């Protein structure tokens, strides 16, 4: 499954070349593993060794880095390919000069980075940071709003921004070449592969715009390349400097993939499974001592788990450092988080809450804001004054705490005179709305929106001179305090204590949830009194607090600003929830079953009878799918044959190509099948990482099928394939570049009825 | 993971190297342990004797009946899903067609039990808490069926373990896990389907194990018998609930492993031999179950011959097979110039139009055609009347005036004298769909846009269009969109009526309409003629397979559609740990309640056993990879193949639920729980002893004699199992008021029985102490 090919080899040093490496302990194994003579290699194996760069003995280092030994000629060839690729990818990059498809989002995010306004997106930051960097260097001021597809750019260095995905898109091409070479494919195959990728219309279209998939594919390709290089090093000799270097780079690159999009987790899974396969092989090699095995294990755990995580976190650190000011993403985050953003700070406030305190009360679980009332009445139920949650600071959020037991009807009690009376658990209080002189009230009416039996309406009720009734009474139940403030468990303390308010008569809890009131409630959040309240949604805390008897010397508190780790974790949770919530249908979404068949594309941009439509190069695409199916079929047949006693796996060619194709197949499968489990909206471009592996697989199949031909013949076959691929590319290129097309040509290009361009 | 396959072990290179001196010949049986044979002690002989075994199984079964029939008449009210399944039983008795997502076998059995007990079907099980005694429903007879089947599951579980070669004590342990389980008891004392499902599932496993034990006597009568029995029981399992598919997967996995071994060249079988085995299994485990499964539906249709609540789910062709169906009463052929009302199949609104026009500009800034509004309206109104206008020359009289499939027609809105029209203007609510409007009758400029093709669903060419039964789609000729509506309502300017627009998806199933009523014909006389002579028609015949196919498809669709949230639905991850149960029934007068929850001791034991199993397997794999073979071969084979089958069974009956989006309940775990109880027995045996009874397969005439091994489980194991049973019993008794719904509990007692804080019991006392 890994990129290793020779089957009978033990995992550590190549046989017969072990001079640089001390032979393994011999004592008990001499019988079982008689030492093979050094010149045991037969002609085949010797040639294979040579192709890996294992030269004649005596030289200190006998393997080219990563098992890559390219001649000067090949490097020159590669240069030519890169130039072609750059031409294809960057041709008229400035057109169209208006917003295309998801540039709406990713362009907007770049603006927000530049204006340092906090936002929340479902994707990790790396790719967006790269795009921002390009925009920043070219002097973008962040003042364009990327509002609609088709909006013409003004004062936006959009070409520079598009250069980022385009450059990374070009960089995939040499990586393809080198990966195939490192996988011991022939130069012709590698050339074929790199040109297939070059002329893949889908990848071209995707890399020409400000989108995240091109960086994602680049890092996926980079990871694959580095991992294959590492495998080659590992087979040669583990724990050399080179070995560590390749392994660490693989880890960093893994971190980069997953920092572009979470889809990168599939790349991690691919490398993970390949690693497990390596370790399993090592475990079966009884010459590897448990100690040595642990060393192998720890090295991989360190570089392939710890390093990517650190890299990923570093990206978020940069993200937080740049986005230091409040923006439209605030509402997703907790209050503590919000207070780390510029423009969201708050003055210190008194810690001790007592009878007579004027407070503002916030809801813990939703970002609905403060317990609020205003001089408008409910149109339903009791028709009394509205109680809502309001997200902004306002004098209408101020409440006065009144003792409901001792001063009920006793106007002589004055908190300014008596001693400070703290709010202890199960204290009965009333909350008086200062601006309107009404009290927080609940009764047996159904709330306006959540019209169910177990919820009561909450209103503000009262009149000047009227002391109120028992339906104004609430019992404070302290739910928990702060670990560092022991007092906050015993009595109400600003910011530190989370509490519930139980209605004395109805037994229901003051409650709020993410349900908005209609227009008459100014679309503020509904507040009810719930008899079956979910605990999380009935928790409240006090944000600001003043009391006539507390002077400046009294203890003050403020939000504890969360550290990086808690901010990081909070944002991950928010991203996860937002991502899972993306379940709306989109007119161009598609399900995974349609991707390998290329049943439908995505309309990116239409204007003035020109169109950009994301669709692949059908020849390359279908060939890759064919290769995947062929490998699965042949491999199944081989397993059946093995069970019936055929010795196919004694053939070194079968073994080599099985390992090679097996690795690529696994890469394809792990980047494809998990999408079936996702119920969020999916698009054709989600298939691209899998497509990359499938194209490599089709090249490996080409290598196998032409392995017995003479090089010249092989080259001719490759040339024919390329000509066909390039012809199809040219045929569909107007869709990729958005260049003008006649109606007839357009209709002719509709090879499948389901391709819905031209409308 | 077939049971006990003692074929040659596939040796890894390391072990073969250590055994280099042995002959490389393929031996059928390993003889390495022949020296370790220990004859069974007197205690073991006594414990394993037939007499003991019969006594044990007899006692267990008796206890099972006792526990399940104890106060089975209480409560004498409708509990939880008895609402559904009791109702279905009543429908069987009355022969009225109904629709449900579950296959019919279990409900047929309930219906039969009801019929046997003398139930006349005249009780409608409307609400939880309705009294049975007041309505003279012989509910005890109906409840007795699941109770009996669940009681019989206990000896089957015992027998599975016994046949798998575990000692009596272990078999009793597994049986006790099911016997003393509150969840099984609660579920089987009511008119529900799960007891039947679990019963047939355990029978399937039993039959398959018997079959596997006969593998050296292949193609004998007995071998065929058990193989066929497996197939039949599989069909019965599937016939109870779709969950039976998971049992199919379990047996399927075992069969694949089995066939794979037969295919192995080292066994020396010819391909012809392999194909014989393959065909035998294909016939017995696929063809026969399918036929049996079909037969349930055949009976289902045969019994339910009359029109009932399920009619509307079915296609018109199907409905016409039901006696007394509306279709048979008044389905008339439609002719041109008839005036009709047209109704949407899914949302039941009429195609409607009125004089008001679309506003020029919508809130989101898009522009309309300002044409006359076409909406969906739920009530009867003359604005729902449409006249069918031909687009071809008609004969003066006769059959030529009938409207047929694929005719191109115009629809004339009678009260505003305008033709229905659609055009390439975005609809008010959906920018991707076309707006529908009307165009004055005498203005010919837009004639083309008023042409619609009538497309009758699943109709042969030339089929006549009928009221009620002729479900159709109306396809706009120039733009190919179909007339469609969806439950979203338009704003106030359209009086909150439903939006109608043109859907571009030609395959959209919800674009189906039908003619609800014939209002008037061209000539009064003709109209009277046609509407008056409505005789009740005889039900038509429809091919059984068509009926089956339609129903099966509907069941699957509706099953997937059960996604509404339910207060007691739970996530599968909670199930093995009993995080939350289901409140089946409450009675506030006596503070009685039935709360469906398992026996914590038993369920957690099962969960622990499964994790131990995974641990052992992992350790074994690692050890063998390093050339160490810590477990004797017979024990290892039993662990892998037999316990493996149970664990695979558990996994297949559990994990697929994670992929389902429909509402899930704790009782969906019951089949998996039985499998985990079996696995727990196997694991307990492995933990207590390094021996098993071996061999257990029946010897064929070509089979070589095998070295024997006997389990050495002694009195200690017995003591352990007795202690465990005691613990289970205590727990069972402690929470039994929740299981049996009697006696009532006061608030304090309820609080005490709330063993996990996540259980939502009713009548709990208010917390009075102040701790958090």
Automatic annotation (TrEMBL), chain A:
SMART domains in alphabetical order: MIR
In the UniProt record, does the keyword Ligase occur? no
Q: Where are the transmembrane segments?
A: 75-91, 160-180, 210-231, 243-276, 297-316, 619-638, 659-678, 684-706, 713-732
Q: Which reaction does it catalyse?
A: a di-trans,poly-cis-dolichyl beta-D-mannosyl phosphate + L-threonyl-[protein] = 3-O-(alpha-D-mannosyl)-L-threonyl-[protein] + a di-trans,poly-cis-dolichyl phosphate + H(+); a di-trans,poly-cis-dolichyl beta-D-mannosyl phosphate + L-seryl-[protein] = 3-O-(alpha-D-mannosyl)-L-seryl-[protein] + a di-trans,poly-cis-dolichyl phosphate + H(+)
Give the EC number: 2.4.1.109
Where would you find this protein in the cell?
Endoplasmic reticulum membrane
Pathway of this protein?
Protein modification; protein glycosylation
Gene3D superfamilies with a match to the protein in the record: 2.80.10.50
GO MF terms here are: dolichyl-phosphate-mannose-protein mannosyltransferase activity
Q: Name one GO cellular component term.
A: dolichyl-phosphate-mannose-protein mannosyltransferase complex
What does the UniProt keyword field contain?
Endoplasmic reticulum, Glycoprotein, Glycosyltransferase, Membrane, Repeat, Transferase, Transmembrane, Transmembrane helix
Q: Tell me if Plastid is a UniProt keyword of this record.
A: no
UniProt superkingdom: Eukaryota
Instruction: Describe the function of this protein.
Output: Transfers mannose from Dol-P-mannose to Ser or Thr residues on proteins.
The UniProt similarity line reads: Belongs to the glycosyltransferase 39 family.
**Which PANTHER family does the entry mention?**
DOLICHYL-PHOSPHATE-MANNOSE--PROTEIN MANNOSYLTRANSFERASE, DOLICHYL-PHOSPHATE-MANNOSE--PROTEIN MANNOSYLTRANSFERASE 1-RELATED
Annotated protein name in UniProt: Dolichyl-phosphate-mannose--protein mannosyltransferase
Q: Please spell out the taxonomic lineage of the organism that makes this protein.
A: Eukaryota, Fungi, Dikarya, Basidiomycota, Agaricomycotina
From TrEMBL, chain B:
Q: Does the keyword Cell cycle apply?
A: no
The record's listing under PROSITE patterns reads:
MIR
Disordered: region residues: 1-25
Give compartment(s). Endoplasmic reticulum membrane
Q: Record's InterPro entries?
A: ArnT-like_N (IPR003342), MIR_dom_sf (IPR036300), MIR_motif (IPR016093), PMT-like (IPR027005), PMT_4TMC (IPR032421)
Superkingdom, taxonomy of origin: Eukaryota
Instruction: Copy the pathway line from the protein's UniProt record.
Output: Protein modification; protein glycosylation
Q: What is its EC number?
A: 2.4.1.109
Instruction: List each copy of the MIR domain by range.
Output: 331-391, 400-457, 462-518
A GO molecular function assigned to this protein is: dolichyl-phosphate-mannose-protein mannosyltransferase activity
Keywords of this protein's UniProt record, alphabetized? Endoplasmic reticulum, Glycoprotein, Glycosyltransferase, Membrane, Repeat, Transferase, Transmembrane, Transmembrane helix
Q: Reaction(s) catalyzed by this protein?
A: a di-trans,poly-cis-dolichyl beta-D-mannosyl phosphate + L-seryl-[protein] = 3-O-(alpha-D-mannosyl)-L-seryl-[protein] + a di-trans,poly-cis-dolichyl phosphate + H(+); a di-trans,poly-cis-dolichyl beta-D-mannosyl phosphate + L-threonyl-[protein] = 3-O-(alpha-D-mannosyl)-L-threonyl-[protein] + a di-trans,poly-cis-dolichyl phosphate + H(+)
Q: Which residues cross the membrane?
A: 140-160, 190-209, 229-257, 278-299, 594-618, 639-659, 671-696, 717-735
According to its UniProt record, where is this protein mainly located? endoplasmic reticulum
Determine if Repeat is one of this entry's keywords.
yes
Under the cellular component aspect of Gene Ontology, which terms does the record hold? endoplasmic reticulum membrane
Classify the protein's membrane topology as the record does. Multi-pass membrane protein
Q: What does this protein do?
A: Transfers mannose from Dol-P-mannose to Ser or Thr residues on proteins.
Family matches, as PANTHER family: DOLICHYL-PHOSPHATE-MANNOSE--PROTEIN MANNOSYLTRANSFERASE, PROTEIN O-MANNOSYL-TRANSFERASE 1
In its UniProt entry, what is this protein called? Dolichyl-phosphate-mannose--protein mannosyltransferase
Which species does the entry assign this protein to? Rickenella mellea
Please spell out the taxonomic lineage of the organism that makes this protein: Eukaryota, Fungi, Dikarya, Basidiomycota, Agaricomycotina
